[in-house]
Amino acid sequence: MASILSVRGISKTYAGGHQALGTIDLDVAEGEIFALLGPNGAGKTTLISIICGIVNASSGTVTVDGEDIIKGYRHTRSTIGLVPQEISTDMFERVIDTVALSRGLFGKPRDDAHIEKVLRELSLWDKRFAKVQELSGGMKRRVMIAKALSHEPKLLFLDEPTAGVDVELRRDMWELVRRLRDGGATIILTTHYIEEAEDMADRVGVISGGKLILVEEKTALMKKLGRKSLHVTLSEPLGAIPAGLSSWSLTLADDGHMLDYQFDAHAEDTGVSALLSRLGELGIGYKDLNTEESSLEDIFVDLVHRPAREAAA
Amino acid sequence: MIMNIHAIKAIYKFELHRFGRTMLTSLFVPAITTSLYFIVFGSAIGSRMREVDGVPYGAFIVPGLIMLSMFTESISNASFGIYMPKFTGTIYELHSAPVSPLETVIAYVGAAATKSVIIGLMILATAYLFVWVPIAHPLAMLGFMVLIAVSFCLFGFILGIWAQSFEQLSVIPMLVVTPMTFLGGAFYSVHMLPEPWKTITLFNPVVYLISGFRWTFFGKGDVAMDVSLAFVAAMLVVCFGVIVWMFRTGYRLKK
């Protein structure tokens, strides 16, 4: 599929000398949901701000929907909708006025029906004549989203959309993201809630220290790095791993009470059944078994900390 | 999309709406202030003053009063218009919108200047409650009003971009513009001053603005009309140049 966003060699060094982004290359296909993961200060917001025109890049080019974001800013910016991380709205204005302003700013003629649709979708219609300052934090965030959707963007950026919002709003938000995707929009989101990226995204990019250290199909990523561990709680503690079990890579934990086995969950033969029958043959009794799948979170933590570990080693 | 007309319209409407919300203070305060000036200067002091340049004193101060309010209102409205989004953070939207610097200036300055002209006319109307003010060149008067409103709104817009605190926002109007207006012949003719003040006053650009505006009412000013127009034109050009530079470099706007 054609890429709606293509980032080439983008870097950013702020006036103070702080390098927020190394050199970033990234392509996002039309219609996909792309999750950008990374710890605080990794450069997620800087990257988004450059694409949206809020921050000038130090080098590199960005193409959105076939046009350069500087030469063709009229087109690229009207293609993009941005929901920033921080809630900043016109506190004294009415909800419907601030949303209508956004539509105009992005070059679209007045369309009351569309504004109504957006406000209804976000459960803001009843509050349309309320001043923004009278709304709760969650409602304000809905206003931010309504503003971003007011001009029917093809590419939507959600910067930490679920940080600090209640469960209901999070659920609504993800439902909305799915509906938008079904409507053909491309969505790029940053999040701390890895399970959400795992749930929603088609592809995942991990950014750390201003560098994009990995971009991968989410399923491929899970497959590639998705390891499972089997924890066997033993009836009697073992002092050492018996020689008869040397063909499995095992570790003893919990003072010999627990036998851990790491295996590839997607392999033809995981070795689990053979291990269990060997345990029986050797007369090693166990009280409990449980397996654990490494989540995207484990993968993420592993990736982000790996360079530091490698440097230390 | 050659010009983002929808954006200009949206910002203009939004800004006027903001003024509408503060209608009471923005329109009635100038009207009341003007009335106070008339009671103090027009009736109490004016009755003891002879005519100035053949114009009754009460009528003579009207152009200066209008200018005084329009200067401060233009600067404060235009500077607030652009400072508030910076302060609340909503400026992110303007930066991420397909809006050119020129469109931004047209919309914000246009809205602020509209309000200034309304206030100017409001003060003029209030003046008629107290004195009869002849207007020799009505069209020129309106044109001059618009030019002054636009110039000072441009100046206010620059101030709003430059300011990094509310204090900075109010320091220029309070410490520079108000004194210059008072000393710029708002309430007297420059010819009434003794030397060396008369010569020193001529270095105050506001003298030329008030004089020009007064000419449109009474057909004569302290200085020639073309000199006044040249000053207004110079102010327009300089302010616009500074704004172009600010947008080009992203001065205090973009990181």
Automatic annotation (TrEMBL), chain A:
GO terms for molecular function: ATP binding; ATP hydrolysis activity. Pfam families: ABC_tran. Gene3D superfamilies: P-loop containing nucleotide triphosphate hydrolases. Residues 5-234 form the ABC transporter domain. It comes from the Bacteria. Keywords: ATP-binding, Nucleotide-binding, Transport. The keyword Nucleotide-binding applies. InterPro entries: AAA+_ATPase (IPR003593), ABC_transporter-like_ATP-bd (IPR003439), ABC_transporter-like_CS (IPR017871), ABC_transporter_ATP-binding (IPR050763), P-loop_NTPase (IPR027417). The keyword 4Fe-4S does not apply. This is ABC transporter ATP-binding protein. It comes from Sphingobium nicotianae.
